[in-house]
C-alpha cells in the first residue's frame, strides 16, 4: 500500500517548512539539502524586494532586527497579491497590523510608509489628460489641475529627515507631497499645514483657486481674506512651477 501524502497535504507541509524551516520539519521523503536551498532562494528573493524599497528603515533598525522582521514577515504573512512589486506594500500592511515580534521605534511605521510611497508613485497608473488642461490658465479664476501622479501626505514624525544620523525623539507634524514629474522622476516637497490643506481642496478638481483660498480663510477665520487669497495665489504659482499643478482644467 502506498504511503504517499495526498497532493494538497504535501503542498501544505512543503509550504509550512519553507516558511518556518527551524520549527517545521520537511515533508517525508524530501531531501533536506535541496529543500534548504529552495527555501533560501525564496526567502532571499522576497527579502531582496524589501531591502531595495526600505534602505533607510533597514539602516535605522540595524541588520539584526531588520533580519528578524523580514523572517517573521516571510513566515507569518499571507500576501494578497502575486505581483513582486507589491511585496513592499504587503510588508507595510503586515507592520501596520501589528505583526512585528519586537518593540520598534515609534516613527518606524511612518518611515516605512514614506519609503514605500516612492515606489507607489513611480508605478502609479495616472497620466495627465493634456487635452483637458490649459497650461497657461488663470490659477485663481480657473480650477487648478493637480498632477494625477501625486500623494498628499501627513505624518506625525519628520520621516523625510530620519536616518542613521538622526532619530527623532519627539513627534513633529510633517506634510509631504510626493509626485512624478514630466521626466518620470519621483520628487518630494515639504509643505506647511496651509499649503497641504490648499492642495487637498484642489485635488477633486471642483474648486477654483480663489474659492479654495476663500474656503481656507473661512476655516482659519482670517481677518483679511483678500490678503490670504493673494498669498494663496503665490502658493499656486509655486506649485505650478514645481509640476504639482499642471495648469487649469478646461
Give an overview of the whole structure.
The chain has 250 residues and is mainly alpha-helical. The chain is 48% helix and 12% strand. The strands form 2 sheets. It has a 3-stranded antiparallel sheet with strand order 1-6-2. The chain is elongated, with a radius of gyration of 24 Å.
Q: Topology, pairings included?
A:
Blueprint: H1 7-19, H2 32-53, H3 55-61, H4 63-76, H5 87-96, H6 108-122, E1 133-134, E2 144-146, E3 150-155, E4 174-180, E5 186-191, H7 193-202, H8 209-220, H9 225-241, E6 245-249
Antiparallel strand pairs: 1-6, 2-6, 3-4, 4-5
Q: Calculate the terminal CA-CA distance, rounded to whole Å.
A: 77 Å
Rough outline = elongated
Cα-based radius of gyration, to the nearest Å: 24 Å
Oligomerization status of the protein chains: single chain
SSE succession: HHHHHHEEEEEHHHE
User: Structural class of the helices, strands and pairings?
Assistant: mainly alpha
Q: How many strands appear in the DSSP assignment?
A: 6
> Order of strands side by side in the largest beta sheet?
1-6-2
Helix content: 40-55%
The number of distinct helices, counting runs of at least 4 residues, comes to 9
Q: Would you identify the regions where 5 or more consecutive residues have pLDDT less than 50?
A: none
User: Per DSSP, what share of the residues sits in E-state strands of 2 or more residues?
Assistant: 5-15%
Mean pLDDT: 90
Q: State the major sheet.
A: 3 strands, antiparallel
Defining key terms:
250 residues; mainly alpha; three-stranded antiparallel β-sheet
Give the gist of this structure.
The chain has 250 residues and is mainly α. 48% of the residues lie in helices and 12% in strands.
Amino acid at each position: 500500500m502506498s504511503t504517499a501524502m495526498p497532493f494538497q497535504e504535501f503542498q501544505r507541509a512543503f509550504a509550512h517548512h519553507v516558511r518556518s524551516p527551524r520549527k517545521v520539519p520537511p515533508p517525508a521523503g524530501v531531501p533536506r539539502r535541496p529543500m534548504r536551498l529552495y527555501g533560501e532562494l525564496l526567502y532571499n528573493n522576497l527579502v531582496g524586494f524589501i531591502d531595495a524599497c526600505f534602505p533607510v528603515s533597514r539602516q535605522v533598525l540595524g541588520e539584526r532586527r531588520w533580519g528578524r522582521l523580514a523572517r517573521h514577515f516571510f513566515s507569518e504573512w499571507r500576501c494578497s497579491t502575486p505581483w513582486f512589486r507589491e511585496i513592499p506594500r504587503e510588508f507595510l500592511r503586515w507592520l501596520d497590523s501589528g505583526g512585528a515580534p519586537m518593540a520598534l521605534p515609534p516613527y518606524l511605521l511612518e518611515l516605512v510608509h514614506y519609503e514605500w510611497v516612492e515606489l507607489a508613485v513611480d508605478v502609479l497608473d495616472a497620466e495627465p489628460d493634456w487635452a483637458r488642461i490649459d497650461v497657461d490658465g488663470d490659477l485663481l479664476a480657473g480650477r487648478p489641475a493637480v498632477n494625477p501622479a501625486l500623494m498628499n501626505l501627513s505624518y506625525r514624525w519628520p520621516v523625510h529627515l530620519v536616518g542613521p544620523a538622526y532619530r527623532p525623539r519627539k513627534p513633529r507634524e510633517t506634510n509631504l507631497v510626493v509626485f512624478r514629474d514630466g521626466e518620470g522622476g519621483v520628487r518630494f516637497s515639504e509643505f506647511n499645514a496651509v499649503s497641504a490643506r490648499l492642495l487637498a481642496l484642489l485635488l477633486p478638481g471642483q474648486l477654483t483657486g480663489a474659492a479654495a483660498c476663500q474656503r481656507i480663510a473661512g476655516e482659519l477665520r482670517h481677518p483679511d481674506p483678500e490678503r490670504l487669497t493673494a498669498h494663496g495665489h503665490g502658493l499656486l504659482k509655486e506649485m505650478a512651477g514645481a509640476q504639482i499643478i499642471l495648469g487649469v482644467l478646461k
